From TrEMBL:
Positions with biased composition (Basic and acidic residues): 207-220
Protein's organism: Penicillium chermesinum
Lineage of the species this protein comes from: Eukaryota, Fungi, Dikarya, Ascomycota, Pezizomycotina
GO molecular function, one term: hydrolase activity
Designated name of the protein: Alpha/Beta hydrolase protein
Segments forming domain AB hydrolase-1: 28-146
Family per record: Belongs to the AB hydrolase superfamily. Epoxide hydrolase family.
InterPro entries listed in its UniProt record: AB_hydrolase_1, AB_hydrolase_fold, Epox_hydrolase-like
GO biological process: antibiotic biosynthetic process; monocarboxylic acid biosynthetic process
Keyword Hydrolase: yes
Keywords annotated in UniProt: Hydrolase
Residue ranges of the region described as Disordered: 195-226
Amino acid sequence: MATYTEHEVTYAGGKKIHYLAAGPVNGPLVLFIHGWPATAITWRHQLDAFAAVGFRAVAPDMPGYGQSTSRRLLDDYCQEALVEGMMALLADTGRKAAVWVGHDWGSGVTSSVAIQHPETVKALVSICVPYSTLELGWDQFLPLVNRDIYPEDEYEFGQWDYMRRYEEEFEEAVAWCNKDIAGYCNALMQKPGARPDRTLPAHTAKVRREGPLGGREKPPSVDMTGPPMLPAEVWDSFIKDMERTGFWTGCAYYMHHQRNAEYNGKKDRRLKQPVLFVHATWDLVCDTKTSRLIEPMREACSDLTEVTLDASHWVPFEKPRELNAALFRFIVNSLPSEWPGFWDSGYTTRKSDL
């Protein structure tokens, strides 16, 4: 396990981002940006692996999470405000650019960084949520729903129905999540047992009609679902942080689709940098295997690599070795100058006909 140092950067009149760093200070910089719900420590597998080979690996508690500022102000969680925080984070590392790795809403944020500040992105990695989708609001990603599975007359918002509920009943939706924070997080983060039938609607498509998790009055307790997917010490730290902030601030990310579209929609979204997308076979919500959700990313990225992992949505801690291997291979193949020691290792190759 790597040795972590804790840091804090203040920006925008007093807001703070807390972050973890591991690996040599002068190593190539990789920023790991988590989604909903998670914290910096949930990237532990990646921080350890990248630090061990010489990268400077950094993971923040995103605004609204962990030890970062978690004000109950909706304006703090639009993409414009989040990108401002990411620029403060990058500046605090002393670098002008990095490899950005995002998962879930973290992919939405890193995509916004790439749109707004492409000069800060040496390479972009999006896990589960493709570039040029979530950060552009409903009008961009809703038309990509697979209507064979989600007929529009029955499932207007497809598998994204739960997002619409936040817009219609935000306080009620958050209050339900907060009834048992540990239980809800554990229910979310379960490895799929029997492989789900991908021809059937995801449970998230019925949230406004039935309520979350099939209409339960509150989330199931931890002992009702199964062992946490995260290592025990990571789980305990993560849940402690989530119980401190609750779900209000993390769920506020869902409240800005129109505003995010206005912020990002007028920019040139074509990317020339190396880009990696990680598909998760059994992610039925961020479905890139049977829907057209990946298409805008393919159209926008001129140097795109794709890899598919046999995992659910929680790829970073369900399949950490496979994900780390994919990330390492991508950097070596597509951006070798960012591999530690590339310039000074004296690496040579000799071939002969012997």
